[in-house]
Amino acid sequence: MTQERFCYASKVFMRVGEIAALKIGDVRGLYGRAVEVIHLAKHQTKGNRSRRVFVGDELRRVLTNFLSNSQKLTDSGPLIASSRTGKHMCTVTLSTRLKSIYRAAGIDTSSHAGRRTFATRKNEIGIGMATIQILMGHSSIQTTALYCHLSDEQLRSAANAF
Fold first, then answer.
1. In this protein, which residues make up the domain named Tyr recombinase (predicted)?
2. What DSSP string runs through 37-99?
3. Alpha carbons 154 and 24: distance in angstroms, whole number
4. pLDDT value of residue 12
5. The whole model's pTM is what?
6. What is the Rg, in whole angstroms, of the alpha carbon atoms belonging to the chain?
């Protein structure tokens, strides 16, 4: 995948290990288009629990374009393959690659920081903590709460709310 596709892959706000474990068949749906929901099997997730990941419209368009240019790829093949082995890229390599892409874009952060930003932004626009918990794949709402940072504006609004 190109650098652009790596950036879109991180917009799913899946864990790096979950992204690295994706197969073509996980994202390819009917007529070769990208699916709206990725169904992760237990072995693809942290905590050995299957889960669903909802794919946004922008990412679906990019994935559909990728899939249309990659019709020869089998469903059992890796979505993001190592250029050296052709097999699934390992988590550490993918994380390093994402970090270098962010750095090239002038963003000094980690691949995991995107998950924190995702949770914080969803919280800021009023998405409930239980919904964010499910989207993030957390088993505990307490973990999700740790990801959601509050801005001074949110606190000010809460103090003035009636």
1. 1-160
2. EEEE-GGGSTTS--EEEEPPHHHHHHHHHHHHT-TTS-TTSBSSB-TTTSSBPPHHHHHHHHH
3. 40
4. 53
5. 0.77
6. 17
